[in-house]
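Key result, reporting period 2: structure in, sequence out.
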């Protein structure tokens, strides 16, 4: 790190758990953030300000006036622009050192697979089950840690699926697809503005911890927040041996 970096990141370097080595790991890391909305906004803000060196921000949507109540990456004068590009502009203003790639297409199939393969960590900040399951399948395939968040009305949840570990559950172990899940979204149900900030910031915290290699991650636990009562609940989640997505993978990763 040069002198300016030592200053910019000094409050992280001061933390014994992070220090210069941990900060260096962040600078060299690459994170994929899928979704530049309510959850992706605070997540991307903190990854960029904290110096995660390479960010890929993917969102095919454009900024709408109804987003601005909570999607803090975006500004009033950017209504109509791609969220990924608006987000990139905001992040560059906070920390021009971070390389941000803005993807304005819906990340699916081969493109999703390639981005997950290239990432050190993946943050699911999307709002629909089809994309969530596609991201999970790619993370299982490439054994990448997945940080997943969701928020609707006053209810939020955060989970980590550290798929580098053979004993870790995947998203599908917890939320099987194929069931008749009612797709709920903020457009019809509403969402409490600071809730997405809390959940997205928690996703950023878990991602930074995993990238720096510090602390105990949420892997194997699901945190649920009732923001109306301001109560957190935690449930343990285990791997489903019969899971069709991750069931076939070995308990121990191949030696490399
Ligand atoms: Zn699974």
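The corresponding designed sequence is given below.
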């Amino acid at each position: 790190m040069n002198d300016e970096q030592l200053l910019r990141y000094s409050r992280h370097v001061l933390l014994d758990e992070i220090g210069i080595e941990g900060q260096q790991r962040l600078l060299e890391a690459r994170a994929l953030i899928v979704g530049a909305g309510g959850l992706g906004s605070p997540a991307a803000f903190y990854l960029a300000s904290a110096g995660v060196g390479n960010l890929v921000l993917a969102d095919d949507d454009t900024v709408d006036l109804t987003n601005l109540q909570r999607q803090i990456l975006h500004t009033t004068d950017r209504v109509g622009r791609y969220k990924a590009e608006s987000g990139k502009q905001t992040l560059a203003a906070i920390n021009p050192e971070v390389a941000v790639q803005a993807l304005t297409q819906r990340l699916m199939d081969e493109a999703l697979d390639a981005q997950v393969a290239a990432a050190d960590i993946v943050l699911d900040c999307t709002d629909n089950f089809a994309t969530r399951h596609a991201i999970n399948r790619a993370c299982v395939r490439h054994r990448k840690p997945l940080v997943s968040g969701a928020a609707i009305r006053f209810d939020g949840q955060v989970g980590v699926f550290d798929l580098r570990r053979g004993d870790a559950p995947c998203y599908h172990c917890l939320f099987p697809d194929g069931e008749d899940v009612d797709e709920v979204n903020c457009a019809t149900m509403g969402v409490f503005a600071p809730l997405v900030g809390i959940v997205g910031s928690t996703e950023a915290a878990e991602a930074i911890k995993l990238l720096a290699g510090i602390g105990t991650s949420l892997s194997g636990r699901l945190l649920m927040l009732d923001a109306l009562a301001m109560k957190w609940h935690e449930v343990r989640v285990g791997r489903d041996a019969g899971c069709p997505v991750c069931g076939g993978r070995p308990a121990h990763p191949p030696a490399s």
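Strands lie at 30-34, 54-58, 99-103, 121-124, 145-152, 155-162, 221-226, 231-236. Residues 16-236 form a domain with the Rossmann fold fold (CATH 3.40.50.720). This case is discussed further under Risks and Mitigation.
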